[in-house]
Specification:
The chain is an all-alpha fold and about 90 residues long. Helices cover about 80% and strands about 0% of the residues. The protein is built from 3 helices and no strands.
Length: about 90
């Protein structure tokens, strides 16, 4: 049971540390949306393009986050197996 607690503690630490590394996914910058009706009318085409580009960028951002999460999850799984082996060696005194 103690080994399981140590493994979970290691997983928590590894997850937290990996999150700081996962910086390649940058969130999109929201477009400026005017509140004045005259500005909305004057810039309608530009506002549409900006909004559509923002939504496309947001979708790419979410995909990137999902991919990084999968990669880190696999990394944590592998490290937890390695760490369990290390703990077992330490426990057996070999």
């Amino acid at each position: 049971m103690a080994i399981l607690k140590q493994i979970w503690a290691a997983l928590a630490v590894l997850s937290w540390g990996s999150a700081s590394i996962a910086g390649s996914c940058l969130p999109p910058v929201p477009p400026w949306m005017p509140t004045d009706p005259d500005d909305v009318t004057a810039y309608a085409d530009l506002l549409r393009r900006d909004a559509e580009a923002y939504f496309d960028d947001a979708e790419q951002y979410f995909r990137c986050q999902d991919q990084e999460r999968r990669e880190v999850f696999e990394q944590v799984r592998a490290v937890s197996e390695d760490y369990a082996r290390v703990l077992e060696i330490l426990r057996s005194g070999s």
